Protein: Coenzyme F420-0:L-glutamate ligase
Amino acid sequence: MELFAVPDLPEIREGDDLAAMIDDRVDLRPDDVVCVASTVVSKAEGRTADLADFPAGPRAKELARNLEEISGEEKDPRFAQAVLENSTDVVMDAPFILTEAPFGHVSVNAGIDRSNVPDHDLLLLPERPSESAERIHENLDASPPVLVTDTSGRSFRHGQRAVTLGWAGMPASRDWRGETDRDGHELQVTVQSVVDELAGAANLVSGEGDGGTPVIVVRDWEFGDHGGSDNLFRDLRGDFVRQALREWEYEG
Amino acid sequence: MELFAVPDLPEIREGDDLAAMIDDRVDLRPDDVVCVASTVVSKAEGRTADLADFPAGPRAKELARNLEEISGEEKDPRFAQAVLENSTDVVMDAPFILTEAPFGHVSVNAGIDRSNVPDHDLLLLPERPSESAERIHENLDASPPVLVTDTSGRSFRHGQRAVTLGWAGMPASRDWRGETDRDGHELQVTVQSVVDELAGAANLVSGEGDGGTPVIVVRDWEFGDHGGSDNLFRDLRGDFVRQALREWEYEG
Structure:
């Protein structure tokens, strides 16, 4: 397995044809996996916004006031409003806002990016990342699988790592159910989230910031002869952490 | 960046010199990263055990009885005893047991493996995975960084992905603090858990079960000129998910 960055991509602007820009720069194969940072997908889709677009309602004002008290830092209630308007569920409201996006991804501040957005205050996540992935997948000459990725924190461990928000051309997970080990025991790992592991691998190569390369190609990796699943995001009923967080209250 | 499996490793037995076995099979470079599945580290270190080694005390009996009621499946209280004896904290006791290992890793059933252990019932995690990594790192001719990896589930998302339990020869995380994006904004991602992303990348190549290859080499990847951190495992105070789970009770 080999990973390399698509070279020399310019700053992406609204309306840019990402597939064409990638095809211009690399000769893709049908069995490559193309990992695209959600920031450039959002930019191409014009998902920029400004704080002035989000006049704060009562709930946003309350959330921001509470976060100000906790942090001792000024918090813009319009940002809280932007988070609420881009979420279907607030999983946790302090000491930071953790929400579920309409497409199922749970992230801090609805994944809204306040850095790396020229001429605007905010960059929102793609509205339907799997549809974005599908469009790029279909428009690339070789139609390889495409992942739209982002980075996020996690429980139990410090640091962020990349995850996949949307995918096309391959299943999200490898299903090992029913397969056995060398001694004939049934395997303990049953579902492997390959799209998240691919996102993490790509993130090792892409880096961040001004030296960052937002599109990474994974070559000579095989999904292999396994079952697949597209069930990536847990719903509330099957997510004990989310159930626990809903009942929990931050006390400083 | 390129990843490949160390070929033709035999079934690992207690006392095997993993570093020598790897050096016999690949010409490593000092800037490779060698990812070793914790199962083979545990086997080499003789971390096998049997249920008979863990006569169940009252707490283990209660845990197993509760899990039996919830699942309707028979649960061996000696397994619960093994989990308790290999944990420093029970984060959650139903509908499954989530515990903290002495070295800080939170996992289901203390990471004890019931598959892939010839002649024994159980395979325990390495006692001090970073010390295991350090020994392999020092004994390999080229002394490349070494990671000891495992797979685990996570909140919010279905499926397992690999994580790192212990590391040597490199920091656990890349620290981007103070670095800026193309427009001079400070980066939102500040700490990138590169050891977990490397573990995930290796897991894409290694697979599971009887076709699995437990040692993967990452070549031509650079940590780069960044700060580093070895603070991988959150403590209770900084882990809101863990705080919430301690207060939460499973109700079916």
About this structure: Chain B has a mean pLDDT of 93. The longest strand of chain B covers residues 161-168.
